[in-house]
Design brief:
heterodimer, A: 260 residues, mainly alpha, two-stranded antiparallel ribbon, 2 strands, B: alpha/beta, Rossmann fold, 2 domains, five-stranded mixed β-sheet, 7 helices, 36% helix
């Protein structure tokens, strides 16, 4: 028991130290510092929301179009950031391997947590700001927003767990990732409600795990009027095996990692 | 005690692989100072990295029954983009030490003054060596792994290093890779000569130095 607690203490210490280091190197200590992490998702969601507002009018699927765009774009940007930042992250942080209490998984976990916290903060800030102008609904059920976010984040992390070690094995992956992330957009659930699709199209997109998380989040935000379609079990059938594969690949890559 | 059992390590070289360590066996007892000799590229740094757990061997294993430092060298163990102070803060955090003690020790040992507020990548190799030693000496280990940086820098720093390593920490084990035969003969109890991926152990350091010089 004592050694388990000791291990846990070391883990907490390492994650904390790595997060502070990552925040310092990425954002510095000047001006708003790590709050910069919220700027990209907020600008992205807000500007696209405004463009759509003027192109398509005030409503989309019966809800405020800006709120709808924000609710889809922030998770999408989260997915893209997590995957992009995982690429070659072991090599970039090779000097951490000088300290045996730091594991390669810590590197991934820290980058993931920073993106997750940053995007969640962005979601809350933008929601409150738009809410003040009556452009964002009072959430129907916050619990479902959090549950959906957890499903969505778990999916992102499982993909990062596979992409990170593969990017160390082959440079091809680094080159094709941007295109792949672009192709992924229709399968992320960002731009539609599953209930608005035809039966056959809905059946296809529901094979994509993040769509389930997205539908849960939107149910939590907009309520039953959007007729959410999701399954609790299906995303796990994807996430758990992919996570296991990722852990295995990380182990293999760690053995081969060359540290300067 | 630290035991290396049949360590093998290769690196990618073109389409094939170059085997740097071809089955190295070595035991270092508590308090023992072992010199690591060999020509450039013989695998001294590679062996130290395997012992420190920075890299993992292709086969064989390292058994650690005492705490060991990270390999102390000009690179590694710190982040070039961070300042000297930030590095000290980071090391203090991951090893669970208080930062104020760490900072005082680093300021006192390195004498780098305001340079500690600059990114480490702007440091000269002498300054890096000072910081590297300060950071690892601030954490107490049973065994120090020293990769080349021993007795570099000016007279004053050499004296300090000598006092901190060989006088204050005379009871610690050390594995020292060096080309400085005088120092090695003066401070080490045993020596290992690395050649062609194999390690030969000499209980008399002068014998090892003679072999090294004939390579």
């Amino acid at each position: 028991m004592a050694s388990l607690r000791e291990g846990w203490n070391i883990q907490v210490r390492v994650i904390g130290a790595l997060m502070l280091r990552e925040l310092t190197t990425r954002f510095g200590r000047e001006n708003i510092g790590f709050l910069w992490i919220m700027v990209e998702p907020i600008l992205f969601a807000l500007l696209v929301g405004l463009v759509w507002r003027f192109q398509k009018g005030p409503l989309e699927f019966g809800v405020d179009i800006i709120a709808f765009t924000v609710s889809g774009y922030i998770p999408l940007v989260l997915f893209r950031s997590i995957v992009t930042r995982s690429i070659m992250s072991f090599t970039a942080n090779g000097s951490f391997m000088y300290h045996r209490q730091i594991k390669v998984l810590d590197i991934l976990l820290v980058r993931f947590l920073i993106e997750l916290i940053g995007h969640m903060m962005a979601y809350v800030v933008i929601g409150l700001a738009l809410g003040a102008f009556g452009m964002f609904p009072q959430p129907y059920d916050v619990g479902f927003i959090i549950l959906g976010a957890l499903y969505y984040a778990a999916f992102c992390f499982s993909v990062a767990l596979v992409v990170a070690p593969l990017s160390e094995m082959s440079e091809v992956l680094e080159k094709v990732t941007p295109v792949t992330l672009y192709i992924m957009i229709p399968f992320s659930g960002t731009f539609f409600l599953v209930s608005s699709l035809s039966r056959s199209a809905a059946n296809v997109v529901l094979y994509s795990p993040p769509v389930h998380g997205m539908e849960m989040m939107r149910y939590g935000l907009f309520g039953p009027s959007i007729d959410p379609q999701f399954d609790y079990l299906y995303p796990l059938k994807f996430i758990l095996p992919v996570t296991a594969l990722g852990l295995l690949l990380c182990r293999i890559v760690r053995r081969r990692l060359v540290v300067e | 005690m630290i035991v290396c059992e049949n360590l093998r390590k290769s690196y990618p070289a073109g389409s094939g692989r170059k085997e740097v360590l071809k089955g190295v066996n070595l035991t270092v007892q508590k308090g023992e100072r072992v010199a690591l000799l060999g020509r450039n590229g013989a695998g001294k740094s590679t062996l130290i990295k395997q012992i420190g757990g920075v890299e993992l061997p292709d086969s064989g294993r390292v058994i650690r029954k005492m705490t060991n430092s990270w390999p102390i060298g000009f690179n590694g163990g710190f982040q070039g983009s961070l300042t000297g102070y930030d590095n000290a803060r980071f090391i203090a955090r991951i090893y669970g030490r208080t930062y104020s003690e760490m900072r005082d020790f680093v300021e006192d040992f390195t004498e780098l003054g305001t340079s500690l507020k600059m990114p480490v990548k702007t440091y000269s190799s002498g300054m890096r060596a000072r910081l590297a030693f300060a950071l690892s000496l601030a954490i107490e280990f049973d065994c120090y792994l020293i990769d080349e940086v021993i007795l570099v820098g000016d007279q004053n720093f050499q004296r300090k290093c000598h006092a901190e390593l060989f006088e204050k920490r005379a009871d610690r084990a050390m594995i020292i890779a060096s080309h400085d035969m005088q120092t090695v003969s003066a401070v080490c109890d045993r020596a290992v000569v690395l050649h062609d991926g194999r390690a030969t152990i000499y209980n008399n350091v002068d014998d090892a130095v003679a072999v090294y010089e004939s390579l």
